[in-house]
Each structure stands twice: as structure tokens, then as C-alpha cells.
Design brief:
6-stranded mixed beta sheet, Rossmann fold, 2 domains, globular
Length: 376
């Protein structure tokens, strides 16, 4: 991580012009990654008039929509690199560090390697999660400065600088130290760990409940919300196998600002979420209406971009119970700076921490603790 922990460094990142992006030109393109993101990128590039000569993948083989899939060490890859092809890294997910891929492509002879963040600036339709045009995926200097000052420790401020740096420079050498094993349970943040009353928003298959139990959190009460019915079934099995808890309620609903029905993309994955083009309709509820007397001590929200609405729907609960919060701030570009502002309004006089728990800017979590929590 960077050691420049002053606001001047952050201000320079934000006021300088974003990193220059050269046009892809007419040279053949080679895509690294033949998974879902690679296939989507292939179609978008073709629609934009570009020629994709090959795809590279460590496990897949054969042909993808008429394009050969090669291994990195295949002679055809070296030949394309020698002839001036541009390599594009299409991998953009929480599990894969893109930097070794970039290094391997350079070592294979590619003179230009384009990552997912830079590609978003060059080809429309490649945005996802926090990816967006440069001027919309980074905060204003004032907004960034406010958040920088609000963060409670050096690690948090470093994480903010690195996240902004990745979005501004497109360089995979930024945000290099995610802690992948302690999401929602970092030992250096004084979260409540005994007699916990947990709201699990976006419970998925119960992974957070299981993880917190393994990390030593002792829950007296759990209310878990998961609207994807495939995930909900797995959640029930997971909770049944978890350590005994005095009070458990599982909700096949989404958390929202109010009680209503919305279209939902149900794919049985962690990325299931509210979408106008969704294939099913789900019930959503506000926490204030659904559980007005639950009195949570810890609220986790990982709900694929619906965090803002869910926070509005628990405004009374936050005011009366003042729980700790763990809110994902990477699903939409502006979540990084807009959700902390909202949390500051709804849970005033709280300490903020920012942690990175996955590669590529995924699983970036804002932890907010009321001032009275974690102090003797």
C-alpha cells in the first residue's frame, strides 16, 4: 500500500487528469480469460468493430464463438504478441489477482496489456459493480477529503487512497493487500463479539453466519434476509448446522426502504440482486417495519447495490439501537463516498473503518461503530 497518508496525495490523485487511455486501434486483440466476463467482452468488442484473434485461458480449451482458446505458452500466442496484438485482461472478480496475469502477458511479449478498469474507458458496456467512466467512479476532492478525515485509522485511510488510485490510474498495482479471510470480523476493529444480535442482509447461503461463528462471535439472535430461493434453502441448512442460538428468524425477502415487491435477478449466486430485467418478483421489507423490536447490535449489508435503500428503511432502528454496521461500498461507483455520508446521518457520532477483503476492488466494506461501542 502507499505510504502517502496525507490529504494532499489524495487530492492530487483526484485533481490530476485520469490516466491516458490510448485507442485500441486496428491491431488484433487477444483476450485473457474465456469465462463469462471474457465472452461478454468478446461480444462487445465485436459489436464495436474490433477483431479478436484469440482468447487465452488456463483451463478452458477449444473455440468460443469462433475464436480459438489457447494456453499462454502456445506458439500462437507468442506469434500474436510478436505481430503487435494487444492483450486485454477480462478477469474482473473477487477471487483472482490480475497483476500476475499482466506480468505474464508482458513476459510473453505483448507490448500493450489493457486491464478491466482501462477497458471500461474504451468500450461501452464493460462497466460492472464500481467500474464506470473515470469521471463518475471517483469522488470529488471535497467528498474524498471528508471521508479521509472521518476514517479512524491509518489502514482505513490507506485503503481509501489505494481504492481511489485504482479507479484513477487503472493500474493493478493498487489496492494490493486485501484480507480475504476476515470479512465482517477483522480483529483490529472492536466489533461486538458476545451476545450479538445480528441482522444479516444478503445472507446468501449462510456464509456470514458460519464465518462469524468460526471467528468466535457469540450470537444471541439472528435475523437473516435472503430473497433468492435457491440461496434461501441453503441458508436454512447452514443455520440449522450452526451453534445453537436463542432466537433465529429467516426471511425470504430483501431489505429495502419500504415494504413492496420488486423484480429480481435470481441466479442462485452471490450476485443475485434487484434488477428491472429480473426474471422473478420478490418481496422486500424495511427493517423498521419488519422487526421494530429486534434491537440489533450488528448489522451487515451485502445486497448488490440496494444498501442505500435498506439503510433508509432502518433509520429508526439505527437511531434507537445504535448497532455496529458493516456495509459493502463497491456495488455502485458512488457507494464508496455516498454510503458513508448516509451512515453518518443515520448513525451520528460513529467511527468509520474501511477494509478491502477481495481482489479487484470487490468486498470493500465500511465498518461504522457508535462512539460508545468497544470502549471501556
Amino acid at each position: 500500500m502507499t505510504s502517502d497518508l496525507d490529504q494532499d496525495h489524495l487530492h492530487r490523485l483526484l485533481t490530476a487528469q485520469p490516466a491516458a487511455t490510448l485507442p485500441l486501434g486496428t491491431a488484433p486483440l487477444v483476450l485473457y480469460g474465456a469465462g463469462r466476463k471474457g465472452r461478454v467482452t468478446l461480444r462487445l468488442l465485436r459489436e464495436a468493430g474490433y477483431h479478436v484473434a484469440a482468447m487465452i485461458d488456463a483451463t478452458a480449451s477449444g473455440v468460443c464463438e469462433g475464436v480459438p482458446i489457447l494456453r499462454l505458452k502456445d506458439p500462437g500466442v507468442a506469434s500474436l504478441a510478436h505481430d503487435g496484438a494487444t492483450a486485454i485482461v477480462t478477469i474482473f472478480n473477487p477471487a483472482v489477482d490480475p497483476l500476475p496475469v499482466h506480468h505474464a502477458l508482458v513476459a510473453s511479449g505483448f507490448g500493450r496489456v489493457v486491464g478491466a478498469v482501462e477497458l471500461c474507458q474504451l468500450v461501452s458496456g464493460t462497466d460492472a459493480y464500481w467500474l464506470a467512466p473515470a469521471d463518475t467512479m471517483t469522488p470529488s476532492a471535497d467528498a474524498a477529503g471528508w471521508l479521509f478525515d472521518k476514517l479512524a485509522d491509518e489502514k482505513s485511510r490507506n485503503t481509501l487512497v489505494e481504492a481511489v488510485g485504482l479507479r484513477r490510474t487503472y493500474c493493478p498495482t493498487r489496492l494490493r493487500e486485501p484480507t480475504t479471510q476476515d470479512q465482517y470480523s477483522p480483529a483490529d476493529i472492536p466489533l461486538p463479539r458476545s451476545r450479538v444480535r445480528l441482522i444479516d442482509g444478503g445472507a446468501f447461503e449462510g456464509d456470514t453466519v458460519a464465518h462469524l461463528a468460526a471467528a468466535g462471535f457469540q450470537c444471541d439472535a439472528i435475523a437473516a434476509f435472503e430473497p433468492d430461493l435457491v440461496n434461501y434453502a441453503a441458508l436454512g441448512r447452514c443455520v440449522a448446522a450452526a451453534p445453537p442460538c436463542k432466537e433465529i428468524s429467516l426471511w425470504p425477502c430483501g431489505l429495502d426502504r419500504s415494504t413492496r415487491q420488486l423484480r429480481f435477478r435470481a441466479d442462485g449466486l452471490a450476485s443475485s440482486g434487484i434488477a428491472d430485467s429480473g426474471d422473478v418478483v420478490i418481496q422486500t421489507v424495511s427493517l423498521d417495519e419488519a422487526l421494530p423490536w429486534f434491537a440489533p447490535t450488528y448489522v451487515k449489508l451485502d445486497i448488490e447495490g440496494a444498501e442505500e435503500a435498506a439503510l433508509h428503511g432502518m433509520a429508526k432502528t439505527l437511531c434507537s439501537s445504535r448497532p455496529a454496521l458493516a456495509v459493502c461500498v463497491y456495488h455502485k461507483p458512488a457507494d464508496l463516498w455516498e454510503l458513508p455520508r448516509l451512515v453518518d446521518e443515520l448513525l451520528p457520532d460513529s467511527r468509520f473503518y474501511l477494509r478491502s477483503h477481495a481482489w479487484n476492488g470487490f468486498d470493500l466494506v465500511l465498518y461504522a461503530l457508535p462512539h460508545e461501542m468497544g470502549k471501556s
